[in-house]
Amino acid sequence: MKQMKLLLLIMGLALVRGIRVQHGHCKEHNQNLTGAWHTIALASNDMSKIRREGVFRMALHKVTDKNDKIYGEFTIRKNGRCHRLSLTAYKTDKEHQYLSLYSGANIFYITHIKRNEYFMITLYNYHKNKKTLMFALYGRNREVREEIKENFKELCLNNNLNERDIVYLTHFDRCEELA
Ligand SMILES: *[C@@H]1O[C@H](CO)[C@@H](O)[C@H](O)[C@H]1NC(C)=O
């Protein structure tokens, strides 16, 4: 029931955005995310979400960036087996802010982006009256420069997480045989 309401809210926001006149879109801010991506690292203030087989231990493979939404194709492991997962996120009126439904409701922000190299998101998950904070680092390749990983670590530490709250995805997590 609650999920239904959230979905309606999200659809509403997507519609509102749809009829709004686009303005002030500088070229350098218009970073199209479409294409192949890999999850490099995840961090959370609730490790149960991102430990092995955690609901947010998702390996990103591909993004399609449309004007009002982005689609993500992920794989996730459950009982040792890889499953495909396709998710849609709706852009809101706030710059770099997105909404999606998955394991509750999520609001996330793309905080760092270099479209040919990496992007980072900060995500708030709302599930059963609990709010969880998460960070993710994605790379165009399976590895990113050490400096980018350091920046990601700094982002996490600046938000009261510890180094042990960061996990780096392994080949096992990435379910590469499915990709
Ligand atoms: C991003 O690029 C893809 C293909 O290159 C295109 O189909 C899509 O419309 C673009 N998205 C935006 C938001 O410009």
UniProtKB/TrEMBL annotation:
The keyword Signal applies. Belongs to the calycin superfamily. Lipocalin family. It is found in: Secreted. InterPro entries: Calycin (IPR012674), Lipocalin (IPR002345), Lipocalin_CS (IPR022272), Lipocln_cytosolic_FA-bd_dom (IPR000566), Maj_urinary (IPR002971). Residues 35-170 form the Lipocalin/cytosolic fatty-acid binding domain. PROSITE patterns: LIPOCALIN. It comes from Monodelphis domestica. This is Trichosurin-like. The keyword Secreted applies. It holds the Pfam family Lipocalin. Keywords: Disulfide bond, Milk protein, Secreted, Signal. GO terms for molecular function: small molecule binding. Residues 1-18 form the signal peptide. GO terms for cellular component: extracellular space.
